[in-house]
Amino acid sequence: MDWQGQKLAEQLMQILLLAFAVVAFATGYISGSFQMMVLIYAVGVVLTTLVTVPNWPFFNRHPLKWLDPSEAEKHPKPQEAVSAKKKPAKK
Q1: Least enclosed by CB within 10 Å: which of 5, 41, 46, 86?
Q2: What is the pLDDT of residues 11-30, one digit of tens each?
């Protein structure tokens, strides 16, 4: 999953959970059944999980371009400079 795919998955999760919460509350309020409300919301959570957790192809529309190993060898990682003398800590 690429970065844009992660953002899309999170947005889908938030939208779907909110939509199922509203539908569950309205249905539970109209029918007067707390059990119906919880059941509808639980189904919504399961469906949201099935949509957002697996790595579906539409989450991979913007793949990252990695540097191939031969190109990486041409540009070595910069080394951190180590100072020869350390200054004593002042009290």
Answers
A1: 86
A2: 999 999 999 999 999 999 99
- What region, left, alpha or beta, does residue 72 occupy, with left being phi > 0 and alpha being psi -120 to 50 degrees? alpha
Residue 53 half-sphere exposure, CB side, CA atoms within 13 Å? 6
Q: Which of 14, 16, 15, 36 is nearest to 25 (CA)?
A: 36
Total-model pTM:
0.68
Q: How long is the chain?
A: 91
Question: Among residues 47, 37, 41, 51, which one has the least CA distance to residue 20?
Answer: 41
C-alpha closest to that of 51 among 91, 11, 81, 3: 11
The 10 Å CB-count burial string (b at 16+, else e) for 43-65 is ebeeebeeebeeeeeebeeeeee
- What pLDDT score was predicted for residue 52? 92
Half-sphere exposure at residue 51, Cβ-oriented, CA atoms within 13 angstroms: 16
